[in-house]
């Protein structure tokens, strides 16, 4: 089973190959998901995950089309995304897109606006994640479903499962991607160039000195560095080393060295402070609920006494 986790960050799905633009420990291939095609041949993966990632990528149609290309027929896509009217959508400055429960219907059955893209996916399920506190107060998903159409911060998360609808095609890589990742990688520039001329397996790469992946296509010769065991499959790197002969290649550039997940200060592991979200504030308020009730009662009693005093005067 070949599984791909796009934008895996520090929480890669178990058994998956993880792609990200930041060289964190745990990431397997460095890519910029805004650059397509992704560096794999068609029909390679059984499942692709995008957990809290698709809202960061500007071109949703092109992203879904390339996922469709690398998925095997009937392969599944699992997408977790924040709902359009949750404050989390607007809070993160790197979010560029908002999604509703119907966003992926545009890739579904050929009706309505599904002519936007030829990539077809069956929407198998959409699970809704409601705000836990609101769910405690109103424990009916039917009512919450209705309310969330009009009120913010009730429906927080959407979990989609889609199935790629496509004709069976040639599989250029039939092995296990996790076990033999370097053999599964392809030069993205050549994948793009040969998309139309139908070459059977463009962009094959050769490992040189355990530090470089060199494109074997005639007239290409792009070279992708491997830093700390991490292949850097980005356009700018492929081009940067294109003119070098294989034997003249220097040490790969160090700027892609892995970033450790935690920072250690004086022997202590330090994590970044989480932002003060609305949830955090509501939590604090809930803890102080008794204080709020006492204040309200005091206000009422004082109001009553003052009112009586004024009447007498
Ligand atoms: C909110 S985090 C989610 C991480 C992980 N999937 C999880 O479930 O915790 C978003 C991730 O997407 C990655 N990302 C954002 N834009 C990207 C891009 N253009 N190319 C590759 N990765 C990207 C970020 O580096 C980050 O690791
Ligand atoms: Zn190439």
Describe it.
By secondary structure, the chain is an alpha/beta fold. Among the domains are: 45-165, Vaccinia Virus protein VP39 (Rossmann fold); 278-312. Helices cover 25% and strands 23% of the residues. The protein has a seven-stranded mixed β-sheet. The protein is elongated. It starts with a strand and ends with a helix. It binds S-adenosylmethionine (SAM) and zinc ion (ZN).
What are the salient characteristics of this protein?
single chain, 313 residues, alpha/beta, Rossmann fold, seven-stranded mixed sheet, four-stranded antiparallel sheet, 9 helices, 13 strands, 25% helix, 23% strand, elongated, binds S-adenosylmethionine, binds zinc ion
Layout of strands and helices, then pairs:
Blueprint: E1 3-6, E2 16-20, E3 29-30, E4 45-51, H1 60-70, E5 71-82, H2 87-91, E6 120-130, H3 132-137, H4 141-147, E7 155-165, H5 181-184, H6 188-193, E8 205-208, E9 212-215, E10 223-227, E11 230-231, H7 235-240, E12 263-265, E13 268-270, H8 278-287, H9 289-312
Parallel strand pairs: 1-2, 1-4, 2-3, 4-5
Antiparallel strand pairs: 5-7, 6-7, 8-9, 9-10, 10-11, 12-13
Bound molecules: S-adenosylmethionine and zinc ion (ZN).
